Amino acid sequence: MLENPISISLCMIVRNEEKTIARCLDSVCDIADEIIIVDTGSTDRTKEIVARYTDKIFDFAWIDDFAAARNYAFSLGTKEYLLWLDADDVILESDRLKFHNLKKNLNPSIDVVNMHYLLAFDSSENPTFTLRRNRLVRRGKNFRWKGAVHEYLEVSGNIMNSDIAIAHKSEEHDSERNLRIYEKRLEQGEEFSPRDLYYFANELYDHKQYEKAVEYYEKFLNTEKGWVEDNISACGKLADIYKLLGDSANAQAYLYKSFDYDTPRAEFCCRIGFNHLNAGKYQQAIFWYKLASELEKPTNSWGPKSEACWTYLPHLQLCVCYDRLGMHELAYKHNEIARDYRPDNPQILHNKKYLEGVLGLKG
């Protein structure tokens, strides 16, 4: 063990975060050696609450540019490493212990530490949707944030993939803000980068402007310069839109198109399987669900992952398919595999009771 703790500046940008900022800072205040808060125009009690944790509170006039605000916050940090969080992020207790261990033992050659980002949870608080973000960076490297909206931290050097997770416990925000910023940039004649095209399409999708979203997702894909994870995600969004528009052929085509960018992902195999299941094509559905169940879950993938598709869901659906075909022993087998992942899932427990009855098994 190195047992030579690094020092950390937490650098955050906030605005009207009175509902969540205390929860966030409570979870990180004994990890950070310095807390820097940059306020971009709060009109609630955010600053008052933050003052309980730090006196390093700064104002930044909002200019519709998240990267500019984050770069300003980073410029104020004085410790060896800079950490960023959003106000509705929280470090759960098990990850706080991991973070303390990382702080004590981080190899001094590491420039960047990325961490899991848990974006959604089921009723039992199991993560259902995750990705990775660069979280902790060496201050002396002067890494910069890029992008007015959906900003990202441009890094290089010695990068560590950690098993620490940051949980995103979202509250309501201004849902129109990002769309307004993009539309303003378009009106000013700005040429969008591939990344801008992708995230603008996401905003259009979220605001149910489906035809326009299709236009920009396709513009993004046609650049052939997008990040592979964004390409795959765009295919999924296009499949969603065409399904909503009643165009099943194009919906299915974009699920298959995702395979142009990488080996099949469990999320897409499950979606194709579901389409076959709904059409009563059980053998085809079995093929795709079996493929999903046999794929090796990527450990260091940066793209978004639906945890269900990589764990219990293919087996739950195989149970359904085999039951429909009268193959009850196989149905029971796959339901039990699903139960290993989700022992308290009501649907899985219902299947167990039903199949034990059919097979004459004791519960």
From TrEMBL:
<dbReference type="Pfam" id="PF00535">
    <property type="entry name" value="Glycos_transf_2"/>
</dbReference>
<protein>
    <recommendedName>
        <fullName>Glycosyltransferase 2-like domain-containing protein</fullName>
    </recommendedName>
</protein>
<dbReference type="InterPro" id="IPR011990">
    <property type="entry name" value="TPR-like_helical_dom_sf"/>
</dbReference>
<dbReference type="InterPro" id="IPR019734">
    <property type="entry name" value="TPR_rpt"/>
</dbReference>
<dbReference type="InterPro" id="IPR029044">
    <property type="entry name" value="Nucleotide-diphossugar_trans"/>
</dbReference>
<dbReference type="InterPro" id="IPR001173">
    <property type="entry name" value="Glyco_trans_2-like"/>
</dbReference>
<dbReference type="Pfam" id="PF13181">
    <property type="entry name" value="TPR_8"/>
</dbReference>
<feature type="domain" description="Glycosyltransferase 2-like">
    <location>
        <begin position="9"/>
        <end position="94"/>
    </location>
</feature>
